[in-house]
Amino acid sequence: MLRWPFLLSALLCLPAPAQELSLRTVQQSGATVKYDPDGGSARPGLCLEVLRAVERTDPGLHFTGLEQQVPLRRVERLLADGLVDAFFCLLRTPEREKQWHYVPVPLYTIRHVVTQRADDPRPLASLAELAALSQRKPVLISRGSALTRRLAAADVVFTEVGSEREALQMLALGRADAVYGQDINLQRHIAESKMGDKLKIGRTVFQEEAQYLTVRADLPAGQEERLAQALRRLERDGALRQLAEKYR
Questions:
Q1: How far is CA 54 from CA 40, 106, 226, in A?
Q2: Where in the chain is the domain with CATH 3.40.190.10?
């Protein structure tokens, strides 16, 4: 027969149930690698899968608001105004860091690359060459992208368009000579649009950057640390790497 002191000791050793915490978020529209409303349960988007993995790692943690799909600039306004608590995933810039916080665990890495028409013989091995090319026709880039900082610093003339998919379509039609963007996005759009015979991604990587989970500036420190702990577990277990590889 179990003695009461032994039973009490065993009960005290049981893990405490996770405290319930709901955080407001949204999906980013027009970014199917991150959030794909047509991807089904198998490929709902890399950032949505990271979010779900965080929920599984910390069962008391839940994200609400995923029925909302908003463009990138609206995402930024919601974060800056504190109308959402967290968002997966954003690149880090000095301007953005003044407005909200970044949880210091990289979710995945993107590479800056250039796409040209397949029959374009001009190599683009540097930003200086891209800047020279842009004097004839502006380089296309997705509207609101943090990658514009790199182009502006190198005196590259560029035009922002609605999405990378739109930019690639314009490139194929000859309305531009180059598209600057994230490798993981461009590869997917080219494959899905079946434009592999018309377009090519250059070998030059102009920069590498990490995508992060962001939280509103006044989110309680304990909640931010709880998110960080969940992401550290996913990083340590290799889950973040496996998800990134799934979408490449």
A1: 19, 14, 10
A2: 22-108+211-246, 109-208
Q: Residue 52 corresponds to which tokens in the numbers above? A: 């779900």
Dihedral, CA of residue 15, residue 20, residue 23 and residue 29, to nearest 10:
80
pLDDT per position in the chain (248 positions), as tens? Answer: 445 554 445 444 444 456 999 999 999 998 889 999 988 889 999 999 999 999 999 999 999 999 999 999 999 999 999 999 999 999 999 999 999 999 999 999 999 999 999 999 998 999 999 999 999 999 999 988 889 999 999 999 999 998 888 999 999 999 999 999 999 999 989 998 899 999 999 999 999 999 999 999 999 999 999 999 999 999 999 999 999 999 98
Reply yes or no on domain 22-108+211-246 having CATH 3.40.190.10: yes
CATH architecture of 109-208: 3-Layer(aba) Sandwich (3.40)
Tokens found for residue 128: 């200086």
- Residue 43's identity, in one-letter code, is R
